[in-house]
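[step 3/7] fold_predict: job queued, chain A
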Amino acid sequence: MGFFDFIKDAGKKLLGEGDDNEAVKSEIESSFDDTPVDGLKVDVDGDTVKIKGDAKDSETATKVALIAGNIEGVSKVDTSDLTNSKEETLYVIQKGDTLWKIAEMYYKNGAKYTDIVAANKEVIKDADKIYPGQTIVIPNFDPSVFN
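[step 4/7] structure written:
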């Protein structure tokens, strides 16, 4: 998977309150019903979060990266040591975006916003509360539809 880039000044405030490594790890683990990554290790170094372990699948690996990257103060997430990962289509929410508008852009069908919410349930806690700079995964995106 490699590196993900994020907007450093957007996201949930967790860093600087104590053990940053434990805070990010706890945020990841508490966002899932089951253990998302066996042997999860998190290393926060400045504005970069390095994640190690064995994710149960590639979708989970992507969500783990998104959870870490949507923390204020994080601009890069390194998942090169996170196994079971593959490239996913990511989107950075812009001012004025709605999930409906994003679904229309990617799927040519605004009603498919529910697919986006379902694929990002660990990142999007409330479909009515998305914010500029938040990065989400666009599930099952077929680039041939994008043109």
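[step 5/7] annotate
The two ends are 25 Å apart (CA to CA).
The chain is about 30% helix and 25% strand.
exit 0
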